[in-house]
Amino acid sequence: MEGHGDDIYRYEDRVRLNFSSNVYLHADHTALKAYIADRIDLIAHYPEPYPRQLEALIAQKLGIDPEGVMVTNGTTAAVYLIAQMFRKCASIIPQPTNTEYADACRIHHHIISYENTNDLTELPKDRVYWICNPNNPSGNVLMKGFIDYVVRRSPRYTFVVDQSYEAYTQEELLVPSEAQALPNLLVLHSMSKTYAIPGLRLGYITAHPNTIQLLRTLACPWSVTMLAMEAGRFLLEQGQPAIPDLAAYMKEAERLRTNLRKIAGIRVFETKTNFMLCELEQATAKCLKEYLVERHGILIRDCSNFHGLSTHFFRVTAQHADENDLLVDAIRQFADGDRLDTPVNK
Predict the structure, then answer these.
(1) Total Cβ atoms within 10 A of residue 279
(2) How does pLDDT run across 67-124, given as a tens digit for each residue?
(3) Spatial CA neighbour of 164 closest among 206, 192, 138
(4) Which of 51, 99, 175, 213 is the most exposed place for a label (fewest CB within 10 A)?
(5) What is the sign of the dihedral through the CA atoms of 217, 219, 222 and 228?
């Protein structure tokens, strides 16, 4: 948990521009804040032990069976719950990807394969495949048809497809009704990311009703707070996704990527999302991160803790155009030789 993005809490008031989180930081929460403020007295009462009313509302909005929906305290809680359900199974986790999958599997004593060796032939036949789609940190997106084909032709394997960033791509992804129809498929969704409310921790799983029934037996009561439930209800009924114009935002993300590629000594990888993986030829990501915070008040994501990535990888997320330009200019100064031990011109 210590190696995540958006670790702004480490830097007190030194950060003024945050590119470290994959979440869009300019969502308009005015109406949501007013709604929650009017219901703040609810904190004096216990919430529903299990968020069935919110699950029913999600199912209604999506046109699916409410018995195939399970609301969780963010998608991270869903990952750990699923890992617990498949305790001591074999898990295949292609890399690099969200570090929580491996962390959760280790806690529940899975046999883990990163799919980069020949160990697949030695693993048990009953396996869980963890697929982040869109993938974090790379921004790659697997074609919906490919995932659907693989899941259907491999009924013995279980597939956990994490679509937390589904609101941050224009690519076609799996829909909840498909998850409910296949006993070996679980799809994770993040309201925290769709509506840019990560502090409220709200996500849900769509899967076959029999799978959801098994997960419910492991769920901890009161794991979703009253305010999170209220926020979820409001956003489903009246709210809009965090990004009002996804096409324009993705165009800006492409402009940021193009400008970063103009900086000597930096490799910027292709992406289908608002965030992008970058690699420094010489310096480490840690060195760049410290420099950007101290000299420019800018925070990026050091990706050195992702399995399979070296200390030279970092990730940034597109924000407003003027902010993106400040990021590019600051990184260019670093690439040109400016360092923390260089005297600052007064």
Answers:
(1) 16
(2) 999 999 999 999 999 999 999 999 999 999 999 999 999 999 999 998 755 566 677 7
(3) 192
(4) 213
(5) negative
